[in-house]
Amino acid sequence: MIWFVIIKAVAELALLALVGRFVVGLLAGERREGNVFWQLLDVIARPPLKIARWISPRVILDRHIPLAAFLLTAFVWLAALQGKVSACLEAGLATCQ
What we know:
3 helices; single chain
């Protein structure tokens, strides 16, 4: 069960980084590359972005990769949540507190 918790936490961190990167990109506009917060969030969000680019077909434009990464990471989070809930139901709810 601990693996589900770890995977879920990493997915949550990646999701928050992707959302934060989107918000900072909206606020900073074209100068986002020089923004310190953008650079920090980009470092955190880079692994899901690379995985999304690797598994997506070449027809997908690069500007759509962040959305694909968000959806992929959300799917991983949902799968980890489902695994954690199933493990808790099997082991008993008292052990999951």
